[in-house]
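Input chain follows. Return structure tokens only.
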Amino acid sequence: MLRALQPLSLVERVSQLNTLGLRHVEIGFSAHPAWSEQCRELQLRFPEVSFGAASVRSAEALARVAEAGLGYAMAPVLEPTLIAQARDLGILLVPGVMTPTEVHQASALGCALVKLFPAVNLGPSYWRSLSVPMGGMVPFCIAAGGLNVADVADWLRQGVDAVVLGQGLFAASLEPLAAEPMIDPQLGAVLRQLEAAHKPPKGEKIPH
């Protein structure tokens, strides 16, 4: 997940992630008047990347997401009216959850995906502990909030389905005045490991 007041200032970062093979990028919502227009421009520049919006908390923000032509949005909260609005707009809204009650409510509202947030405060074993007493009837889980590249493998082993990285995408720079933060050098290796783990056996066709 990338955040900036004006999305076009993120071009270099998106380019770096695209080169590494990352195909899903969320742009943090901002109230800048050109936010929707600049998100559309990013999609034109990187057609192979699936862009979504992050930090969507209001009806106005969701309307701007639709205006930007983004197919999905991530929310830090579980808000039924936003879920209903997103369906009307044809947008996939992934609500933020933390407690068993919130997970149950999201499932009852028909949410196939949820965002476990803030993940860093819960620990990688939390989702497994939560899902067991719920009989395994839990949505697809995306862990988000304060995680780093080095955390990805452990969280996936513990049962979440995907991990969102924000500032954790970038390594601490030795040059504080550098124009662009440096992508964590571990990211490429992690992506290759994940690709290898999901590669079908030789001779097996990938379903279309």
